[in-house]
Amino acid sequence: MGPWRCLLLLPLLAPALRAQQQQFMEYVERRLTLLEERISQWHDQSSRYSTELRDFKNQVLGMLEAAEKEREAMRAEAEGAAVRVDRLEREVDYLETQNPAPPCVEVDETLMDKQVATAKQRKNEKYTKLTDCSDTIASVRAMKILKRFGGASGLWTKDAAGNSEKIYVFDGTANDTVYVFPRMREFTLFSATRKAARIKLPYPWVGTGHLVYDGHLYYIRQQGLSFQVIKFNLANKTVVDSSVFPAEEQIPVFGLSPSTYIEVSADEEGLWAVYATKEDEKNMCLAKLDPASLDIEQMWDTPCPRENAEGAFVVCGALHVVYNTRPPSRARVQCVFDVSGTLAPEDASLVYFPKRYGSHASLKYSPRERQLYAWDDGYQIIYRMEMKKKLEV
Fold first, then answer.
1. What percent of the chain lies above the pLDDT cut of 90?
2. Which N-terminal stretch is annotated as signal sequence (predicted)?
């Protein structure tokens, strides 16, 4: 088509082009109007959201301030309660000190059984001390909770006479397997018994009154109505000696530990046995043992009651009996019986133990370390003691 024909068509196409341009412009205007409306709507929503966020922030800040005030009030109340509890404990300690249990002054000099005739003849003889030890407990200085091992009752100890660092653990009041840890570190760090050696005894033990002394285990075996002291060599795992304890109709020595009939203890003077019989159901008896032959060297009726007693140990020839209450409370050394007569029971200090979990199942005195190894509701505890001379009490 020639140029002249295109020129003839332009007047015909111009109205159509203007109409399309007008439609396009109207479309663009509508889209812009819609976009402006959406922008306005977004602006309104954004402004509303900002207002709501600001209000929520102010509300949260108010709640945080109120919570902080409540926390400070609770902290002040807790501190006040702690102060009142400490004051109450001091008042209770003071009252217990000012109003202790009746002094242990009653002594029943009943005749002993024929089996202890020899000991009875020497009963009133003056005790000949083997050492110059004249200390007694002034206070329990501190306690250290090692771990929790085994059941509620048991005992753990070192050799009371040697320098061995081995730890011996007796779990329960009726068993025949002793766990032996090489050092305190292994016993503290490892809870599993696979880290311990095991010693199976030829006879099961009864109670928690056993003792490791000079490489030997002295433990209590019940045979019918009588009780035997078994001397067991820990090195070659053999029974060295055994002896029927020369007392008839024995009863539990501690009112709060019904499974213990004989408590074997060691101090600077040697071996001792604490026990009780029906001849004098109220008080305990004390015997001096020969570690080599298990013979009874001398026996005493003590003025220390069995009732509410949970344990006992001997320090420098003086029996210290620990008392508690049936709902466990603070334990205390409330009766001291000195075989040499240096310290009268009524002159002994009333010694309290720190707070614990329950009631002592056993207390083992270490003469070398001057501390107690205690078993308290499955927890193994070390008590460090402050000592002083008996004449200073």
1. 42
2. 1-19
